[in-house]
Amino acid sequence: MELTSYTIERVFSATPDRIFRAFTSPADLQAWIWGDFGANATARVDLRVGGTFEVTADLGREGRGGMRGMYLVVEPARRLTHTLHWDASVGYNGPGMDPLDEVVVVDFLPDAAGCRVRYVHLGIPDDGRSAPGHEKAVRGTFDALERRLAAAPSGNE
Question: Among positive and negative, which fits the CA dihedral 153, 121, 77, 116?
């Protein structure tokens, strides 16, 4: 099967440093990364090249599931690149399937309004529905990130 990708750009009214922390701090990730798709999230982060992360949540009838990966690039307030392995059903990783880990590249770009995030998700099986589904879900979790930034502007709350 061929692989595909998508790119999202969104401006947040916070500094690149704050947005970078939102993508790498366990407390922040627990608060927003699953958006409305999961509850009772937990996160573990070893923020260094070769370090790993894992974020799990209660996913309704599916039970507990999550995502994990390894950091490939860590440039604070500039760029974050990591692999992405799903420990939750995403449609193309069921029994008998053996998908490759995906890759996510996030650029944190200074913007007059705060920070422009460029989020590129690579390596999604091109079945005509998975990439659009992922993109829609990430756009929803970015809404949850916006709420997190409003509730915890410094990230210490």
Answer: negative
